[in-house]
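<instruction>
Derive structure tokens from the sequence
<entry> Chain with its tokenised backbone below:
===
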Amino acid sequence: MSATLLSVSLLAAATVVRADYFSKDPLVNKVVPFNAIPYQVMTDRDDPRGFQSGYNICNSTTENQNSLCQTMFVNHMDDFCLWAPAPPNSSIADTEGDVVAWCSKKGHGSRIFPAGAITGLQMIQTPSYIQIAGTIKQELLNIVGEFGGELDSGGQDGEGNPMGGLVYSNAFKSNNGNNATYQQAQHWSFFIGANSFCGKICDQTGSNPQGLCQNIYDRLGCQYNAPNNAAAGVFEKCDGDDMIPVGTYIVNGVTSVYHQPAQETIPLGVIPYTPTPAPSSNCVTYTSAALFADGAAITGAPQGGSATTTGASAGATTKGAATSKGAAGAASGSKTGSAPGPSGSSGAAGAWGVSVGALVFAAAAVFAQA
């Protein structure tokens, strides 16, 4: 994969928001039991960015390829969702406040991943969060261009991206394997673009959910927010250790915290550390056909309708314990310069396969080198 796809711009400045506005009832503070989800969780009506465009009550009546469901799930290898645009041929920068849930499995009232949309997947289950990362054919999820961005429970005004988005899981360690009980993840962060994605949802009862699922490092992308070993063509589930909180690093026994510049106009400069994926073990591999049977009948660009294919059991193969591998080198840059290439020795052959170790969502208006 070329260095061009390494440099992905968040383009956060594309959304015009009054700088002094912040929600009186921010999304991250909303405690919404699964059995008490409202039609729309957003309550503020004076946000200059607008109002929630979709809905949170999602069921069989909303489950189709035109769904505007904004409640998503990260449960298991064959049962997870991503945020992606509703209109075809869209950029994340233009739709971040309005993205909707696309899921691997029926039953969530959402859109379903079309056949071939997910081309690689790694799911890591830790004591405090669930992390997913992988590769996609982004045009099948209505995404165009080489630019992507962050979608998280914070948002520039506290309303989240998407505005009013809710995330649940029945697979947190604290749930003790009870698939019938869904727990809300109040802290979550996803990156998607350049045919790659990553995401992390934190258990509110776990260790430091805000620190492990930070949403203030939007310019650093997957490499720093969700270090991983995902690769195209590989579908695996692993147990893992908790990573060090995003932005925190240790050099010669001294713990420090890196602070991303607040303004997009300020170059990132030299980031003082290179993250690596936390150790993982007990990895189990799956076949794509076993994981995505519910979308097998949906082909090409989404045009409405849902698949009728019934689910299949996921045939798994257990392999030896995995060890942590280095991620691709980080990129940093300025708003006025060209997007930087990777630093370090991993170059364009990092741990992501075609995603090359990580998405780096650089400053707005930074363009990839040819």
